[in-house]
Structure prediction request, 171 residues.
Amino acid sequence: MRWIPVDSKTFEYGMLRALGMPHRTLVQILLSKSLLFSAPGIGLGLLLAFLANIPIAHELAAFAVVPPDYAFLAAPLVVSALLGLGMPLVANLVPISRALGKTLRDSLDVYHVVVSEVTVRVFKLQELGVDLWQTCISVLLIVVGFVTFYVRHKSQNAREKLSAAGCTEEA
Prediction:
């Protein structure tokens, strides 16, 4: 679906409609193409996320002195799968409605060209009031907050579990 935009395929859709294909069947074909491309991408993305999580979880667990946990929770998997399936469907709604909303005569017009004008303006961050030092300090504070909240919290929980189990640290 990404390689062949809906706008450039309007003539093909018009031909299929002229041959008697109902709108509903054409929409089903377009949506199944979209899902056909997104499903392998979701699977590959989740696999790569799991593989990237292994060294990160190992390093965080070693830093926090806790056993590593490599498992993914169900909620993020479901959310990522739903977003991965839903975004292509939402992205295709406007082009599909534009292609199918035309009259059959307009769909079969080879010389009809859709012109969409896009204006791009480039701003420097300094013009918007954001300086480089502010960005660096913000990133530093985010990292410190992450380490303080997550890593220290996990380490403290692990120490409490060890002390509850009767294990003590010897210096």
In short: Residues 1-116 form one domain.
